[in-house]
Task: inverse folding
């Protein structure tokens, strides 16, 4: 091993630790934002003011107009972003992107976005307790987590938007942007099925976006994936 090569390993190690620190600090910041929003809508000054005071009218209206067809469609889209599906689909996306691009950067971007989303979601539900809407729930066996935020919506944004962005980076045709409709359909389905307040869905979408931004900053902009690729070629 040459002197330059031996010196490159400590530098690479320092870079990796720096990126890990950035990811952890970013994750803590995203959690702080979600926890603060959760406090505002459950116990803070916004809890009993407009529009939160009247947002459950949306759930009641949707519940009053349910039918068999919409029940099935909403159930399908909810399934696309539940925990088992999100984990399975993200694993498939990770392997497929790595195999097709022969690079780690985009695959790690997808993984980091979903990892951030899941971690912050779980931490937020620990510190924020919000009852689900007072309408009949179509998913009675859902995990007993807080209604805030919508984990389905957050996972849909983090996963499907991440995949769309990766495909766009590789000059995929315009229909790739149809993937952006999936988080919208998931968010609506969670309202329709009576599982979340509208502000929960909005917070879930925000969590998904923040998770994407953090993953983009730490993985794509920093060159983490390129570093992994270079080491893998030695």
Result:
């Amino acid at each position: 091993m040459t002197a330059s090569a031996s010196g490159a390993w400590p530098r690479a190690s320092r870079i990796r630790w720096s990126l890990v620190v950035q990811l952890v600090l970013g994750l803590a910041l995203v959690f702080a934002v979600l926890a603060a929003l959760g406090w505002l809508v459950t116990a803070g000054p916004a809890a009993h003011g407009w529009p939160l005071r009247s947002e459950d009218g949306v759930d009641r209206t949707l519940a009053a107009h349910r039918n068999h067809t919409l029940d099935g469609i909403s159930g399908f889209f909810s399934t696309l972003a539940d925990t088992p599906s999100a984990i399975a689909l993200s694993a498939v996306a990770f392997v497929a992107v790595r195999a097709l691009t022969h690079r780690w950067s985009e695959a790690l971007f997808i993984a980091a976005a979903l990892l951030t989303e899941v971690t912050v979601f779980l931490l937020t539900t620990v510190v924020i307790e919000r009852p689900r809407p007072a309408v009949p729930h179509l998913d009675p066996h859902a995990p007993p987590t807080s209604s805030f935020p919508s984990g389905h919506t957050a996972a849909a944004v983090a996963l499907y938007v991440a995949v769309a962005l990766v495909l766009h980076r590789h000059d995929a045709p315009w229909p790739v942007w149809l993937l952006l409709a999936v988080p919208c359909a998931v968010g609506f389905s969670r309202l329709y099925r009576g599982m979340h307040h509208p502000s929960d869905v909005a917070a879930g979408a925000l969590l998904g976006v923040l998770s994407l931004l953090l993953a983009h900053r730490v993985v794509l902009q920093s060159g983490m994936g390129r570093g992994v690729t270079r080491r893998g070629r030695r």
Remarks:
- The chain has a mean pLDDT of 85.
- The first helix runs from residue 3 to 42.
- DSSP finds nine helices and no strands in the chain.
